[in-house]
Amino acid sequence: MNIDFNKDNGLVPVVIQDNRTLQVLMLGYMNEEAFEKTKKEKIVTFFSRSKNRLWTKGEESGNFLTVKSIDIDCDQDTLLIKVIPTNIVCHTGSFSCFGEKDSKGFLYELEEKISQRIDNKTEDSYTYSLYQRGMNKMAQKVGEEAVELVIEAKDNNEALFKNEAADLLYHFLILLKAKGFSIEEIEEILKKRDQ
């Protein structure tokens, strides 16, 4: 990795992104010493322009940024570091310096759409009609989709396998809603297992 530290007084901008959600968390700057320290310790260290010294994010708050990957842009003068944050990132108390809005991806949008169709009792919606049929039917549908996915896994038709995987995820989200749980709650369990 050949980083050009000569373009901006020995500093390069560093975009910090949550490795799990891909949410942009903050922007900082590194000089070569901060970069080497970050690589070695796997904890993000910046060069603070206001303090004119190295500054490890979390050194006072305990909200460290554990490095998962480091990438460089095409001009070799900007870094993208994916991290696992210990806690909130922004000094204002927000999780991200770019506000509270999570950019968690399409599955979260789909979860919200499913929730709206059920909460609004959307009559012409497959989602709501399945929900109306009760817990047994929703659970049975998840089971059916899981079996169909297993069957497709044994064959070599990639398109059918991916479609069955999508069906299983969709019906799983309906079941989660019916049980009163969210993807985020399931994510939290997985995050704890990943520690």
Mean pLDDT: 92
CATH fold-type name of the largest domain: Helix Hairpins
CATH class of the largest domain: Mainly Alpha
Shape: elongated
Number of structurally distinct domains: 2
Give the strand line-up of the largest sheet.
Answer: 2-1-6-5
Q: Could you describe the largest sheet, including whether it forms a barrel?
A: 4 strands, mixed
Query: What distance lies between the first and last C-alpha atoms, to the nearest angstrom?
Result: 28 Å
Strand content: 15-25%
Q: Secondary-structure element sequence? A: EEHEEEEHHHHH
| DSSP helix fraction | 40-55%
Count of DSSP-assigned helices: 6
CATH superfamily label of the largest domain: MazG-like
Rg, Å, rounded: 22 Å
Number of strands: 6
The second-level CATH architecture of the largest domain is Orthogonal Bundle
Which short descriptors sum up this protein?
6 helices, 195 residues, 19% strand, alpha+beta, Ubiquitin-like (UB roll), 43% helix, elongated, two-stranded antiparallel ribbon, 2 domains, four-stranded mixed β-sheet, Helix Hairpins
Provide structural commentary:
Helix 2 crosses helix 5 (158-179) and helix 4 (135-153) packs antiparallel against helix 5 (158-179). The two termini are 28 Å apart. The strands form two sheets. Strands 2-1-6-5 form a four-stranded mixed β-sheet, covered by helices on one side. It has two domains: 11-85, Ubiquitin-like (UB roll); 106-194, MazG-like (Helix Hairpins). With 195 residues, the chain is α+β, with helices and mostly antiparallel strands. The chain is built from six helices and six strands, in the order ββαββββααααα. 43% of the residues lie in helices and 19% in strands. The relative contact order is 0.11. The mean pLDDT is 92.
